[in-house]
Amino acid sequence: KEDISLSVDICKASIHGVSAQVQRERDGRKRILRRCKNNEAAKRSRDARRLKENQISVRAAFLERENAALRQEVSDMRKELGRCRNILNKYESHHDSFLLKVGISCLQRTHLFIGI
C-alpha cells in the first residue's frame, strides 16, 4: 500500500513540479492543521454542551424549588379553606336554628292573628 501512496505522491509532485518529499510534508502539515481545527471545534462543541447541561440543571433545580413552594401554598390554602368551611357551617347551623325559631314564632303569631 505504501508503494501506491508513494506513486500517488510522485504523480502529484510531478504534476505540480514539486518533489514527493515536499508534497508529503505539505500533506502532513495540512492533515495536522485539519486535525487541530477539528480538535478545537470538538472542544468548543463539548464546552457548549456542558454549558447547556449546566443551565438545564440550574433551571430544573429552580423549578423543583418553585414547585415545592407552590405545593406548600396549595396545601396551606386547602387548610384555610377547610377552616373557613367549618366557620361557615357553624354560622349556618346557628343562623338556621335562629331562623327556624324566629320563623316558627312568626308563623305562630300569624296563625293566632288570623285565627287559624
Structure description:
- This protein is an all-alpha fold.
- Helices cover 95% and strands 0% of the residues.
- The chain is built from 2 helices and no strands.
- Helix 1 packs across helix 2.
- It is rod-shaped, with a radius of gyration of 45 Å.
- The protein starts with a helix and ends with a helix.
- The mean pLDDT is 79.
- It comes from Cyprinus carpio.
- GO terms for molecular function: DNA-binding transcription factor activity, RNA polymerase II-specific; RNA polymerase II cis-regulatory region sequence-specific DNA binding.
- Residues 53-80 form a coiled coil.
- This is BZIP domain-containing protein.
- Keywords: Coiled coil, DNA-binding, Nucleus, Transcription, Transcription regulation.
